[in-house]
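Researcher: Please translate sequence to structure tokens.
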Amino acid sequence: MTIPRYIFVDDTAGPESDGERYRNLLNKEGELRVDLVWPDRATLLVAESDLEAGIDGYILDINLRDQVDEKGQRFLGTGAGLAQDLRLLQALGPSQGQKARPVVRLCAAQVFQDYLAGDNSTADIFDLGFDKETIGDIAPVARAKLAALPELYVAVQGAGDDPKAVLTILGIDAKQYEQLHSRFRAELETELTRKPHEAVSFIIRQLLEVPGLLISEELLAIRLGVDKARSEGWERLKAYFDPARYVGVAGRGFDRWWVDLLLFQWAQLGTQSLFKLSADQRVTALNAAGFDKLAVLASTKESPGDRPWLLSLSDDPALRLPADPQYALTLSTPVSPWVDEPVWCLEQAKRNRKSPLLPQDARDRLRTVLSDAGREISKT
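Model: Translation complete:
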């Protein structure tokens, strides 16, 4: 198997630099090769025939002006501008520009806020984005996603001309495809006729990276009512749901399960609908089916309710909690109809009850929920 190779463009190059430290976090023999280079338009923004051979993708810092090169000169521009120029070259194709490749952001969180926050024009320029502050904690996950991205680029090119290509990309048969949300199918088929990076962006942002048609392992455990960190039998239970796994293109980088197939597998246990059961009842049903050593996912005062189904959004890991829809507060962020609406758990909503992300009806509901729980809250 060919190991994907990325060029990491950062102005802090050199053996002891920060750029080298981040390169080492992502580079791993047998999985992913990452080479650190100085931002240089003369070597990066060139035709495919003049480009260094063997590049499968780009990783770009955003602020490229902190350091000077050996001539004492700073790079004029940003990683976002460089990414835009690369996309323009890719739009021309390899005969006149460059072939389509992944372009990924890796920068400090504050740099992202200063340069790109609120700028929708960069939404589909970068396939993925990572913060330098947290990349060390998620390096294996980030590495797997980076390694899988080139496969996705290969798969979407020319897919718009092949009616069966969408089945190959998703790794499902025609029957299951027809059962997916009609709007999703229509938009996916349209996106596959557009530029490769636009098709890839749609697949990542509307399927692989959001809960809806697919869910992560974290959400899989939540919906089964299982505390996987405390369950010795989790891996055995997870194997039972292997028929629901996403096995489409880039699946090795995105560990996901189809929700419709998950529910089908659950139905084979001969018990009640998964959503109607409490976490304790779900685990009891699993025990009866022969799956032991499973700990029940307990509710908390921060996120009450005994029917966990969703995952609360939060930058605070302590509040990124399983959420029962009865107590979860839906945010005003618009999403596609096949994507789960984003929610906050009770405590997250309480702490941010004046946030514009919390619509008025959710604020009214928050008062009711807190009142029912015997809590007091000041007027918003």
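Researcher: Any highlights?
Model: The two ends are 58 Å apart (CA to CA).
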